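Troubleshooting log. The previous structure file for this entry was overwritten by mistake, so regenerating from the original sequence record. Sequence copied from the archived sheet and checked twice against the printout by T.R.
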Amino acid sequence: MGHKEDENCYYLLKESTVSFLIILVITCGVVYLLQKPIKRWPVVFYGIAIALTVLYLYLINNGAPVLTWKYLLVFFQRCTIGLALFTIVMFVGALPDDSKARAVYNPLRRELSILGAIFTSGHIIAYSTTFLPQ
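Regenerated output below.
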């Protein structure tokens, strides 16, 4: 690779990392605010995740406005939301037992794993339909 390609790869990696960290922080905050409803009514949240995933698949197949891609759908396309949920699940298991973060997030690990899997499935389906035929 030439120098220009190296710069482009570095820029994309940096942009992806920053986007992921932003979504991770937002996801942690949303889960924190919704911890009781998520625990009490997980099926509602699974339904919302399925609906958002289906909407994402519909929009990538039928077109979406540029701003929608830039500010919303890109996080589904890069699987950032699913990865953020899985990151919470994995890191919470590694926290000390007396950690406040563990006390908040550990009881939700099952629900967050299922939500992460639902959001990740949209990413997998979208890319499978593109690359499987090849």
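The longest helix spans residues 3-33. Archived copy saved in two places this time.
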